[in-house]
Amino acid sequence: MSDDTANSFLRIIRRAQRGRLKVYLGYCAGVGKTCQMLHEGHRLKADGVDVVVGLVETHGREETARLVNGLEVLPRLRQDYRGVTLEEMDANAVLARKPEVVLIDELAHTNVPGSKNAKRYEDVQDILDAGIHVITTMNVQHLESLYNTVESAVGVKVRERLPDSVLGEADQIVNVDLATEDLQRRLQEGKIYPQDRVETALGNFFIRSNLEQLREITLRELASQIDLRRRVPQEEDASLSADQVMVSLSSRGPNSEMLLRYASRLAGRLNRNWYALYVQTPSEDPAAIDAGTQRILAGTLTLAKQLGAMVFTYKGEDVADTILRFAREYRVGHIVVGHPAPLSFRSRLLGKRSVVDRLVNNDDGITIVVLGTKAGRGAVEPATVPPQPQINTEPAPSMPQLGSLLSAERIIVWDEPVLKEEVLNALANAALKHADRGLFIEATRKIREREQQGSTFFNEGVAFPHARMEGMDTPRVAMGLTRAGIADVATEKPVELVFLILTPLSSPSAQLQVLALASRAVQNRNLVQRLQKAATPEQVMQAILSWSEQQHHNAQD
Question: For residue 427, is pLDDT > 70?
Fold first, then answer.
């Protein structure tokens, strides 16, 4: 690692008002991520920075253990699990010690059941939220969107995974690279695993083809991250053009997770918002499908949210028509679908066509990406192709912050269970304060129509009722917090946050923009925690403003 790399992070942390995250990214165990992190810890300490070791895994490696010497190491938390005492990082000890910088190994680690947080990256997020800077390590195969790609490339199912957004929010990413021959030599010398495990490792995971493929995947991911970070803020307007990405899901579709991961990476390559659409046909009504299918569907939609999608459910008897109707409204340019089951000879004889055939033959100029999802079929990485320029006569809207769209008057907190109709009416009234009665009646009518198509009240505890309106020149947003949930909405997790969004009919981009802002807000774990603690509209507004200001500072940095 060069002096410039360490010094640049030193400059970042000295001017930062919040905790900053630096990630040493590698393609395999043994490339030197932990050693690089510890070297930087010593450099920062020499520069007068208060550095501690929150957790470092030496795995019995002498070189790593030596580098820990000279740094303050916080004691680990010992927990009993099924009769075995296990050690975890003590996040509370880090928060109590409050150093300037903490070194934390293995970001994707899963904590012992019963811990405050299920995953170590959530501990890291809590630490960052307390204003403590974090330097950490991870391997590329732990990214959720790469699960199928890695399984196809090296035949390994990676169990410990984290959302791509965690890496995407890092302030610095450093690629720790090592030639595959050098890595194998380190393994043979006993510098990675004990000698009794070397031959097995060399004959399995550490074969040259596996390492080269993982190295290539890491370099591609790093290039993608660099490309996203080099874009100037004005180019974010491109994410609102008529070229959004969507993936179509079915409750019984095979390997929907593969479709989601592909769509996530495609949207990242194109710098576009993306949506996961579940079309609920009469045969897939919750009352018509079994509990097992409902659990699978809920898990699929949860994964979609973790990968950064905005999830929608639309009701419709004609799946292809419903997908295209959604695509037109939300300005979709790429639709990702699974390969359909073959139609019977009789169906073909009667002239029936599959959903995919009908989508491919659409006349809207939408690109249809059809993926094979049968078990054992290799995953495909989206091609790195720049998005085609779109002809769009609509002026690109300015990029507001969520805090500028809200006020305490437009925030309602319900402490007791409340009905959905009451929530929609109250929020519409709050959004349209001082507007004429006719606009309020039209807004509630349009919102009800949208809810009849498919509820925007999702399993993940959030809701985004929205409509485009004539007679409006700027977006109107109201926000509701329901402490005891919405009594007549059946979701696995009670709906706690509701964003009601009204935008001008003449500006489709405004709807996409505000939906993206609200979606980004509810995906921020620290903001959601602050909102859950807020007791009044004023406290809610303060949390939103703090988050908006933080987003602004991040963009500037």
Answer: yes
